[in-house]
Amino acid sequence: METYNQNAFPPLGIYNHDSLELKNAHEAYDIYVNDEYIGKKLVLTQSEEIDDVVDFLKVQGVENVSTTLDGDHYVIKTENEQHVKDIIEAYLKNR
Prior knowledge:
By secondary structure, this protein is of the alpha+beta class. The protein is 23% helix and 28% strand. Strands 2-1-4-3 form a four-stranded mixed β-sheet, covered by helices on one side. Strand 3 (65-70) and strand 4 form a beta hairpin.
């Protein structure tokens, strides 16, 4: 009976991918409206971006918002807090 050296994993160094070019499998951002946590936005595909949240707000007629990204915290500042929170909650449930 012959045995072969079979490895379940390929040897390291064979693949020369730049890890910075590839998105994480499940990139996620915590969404805040005026420093109140609303929910988590998962970015699952290469075409999705965290700024899609603000694009959705604009489609809903909300224009006067500012955003900051600090690590995985995406903070949306607005004077119309409850309306924006309601829109973001619906957005996160539907995505």
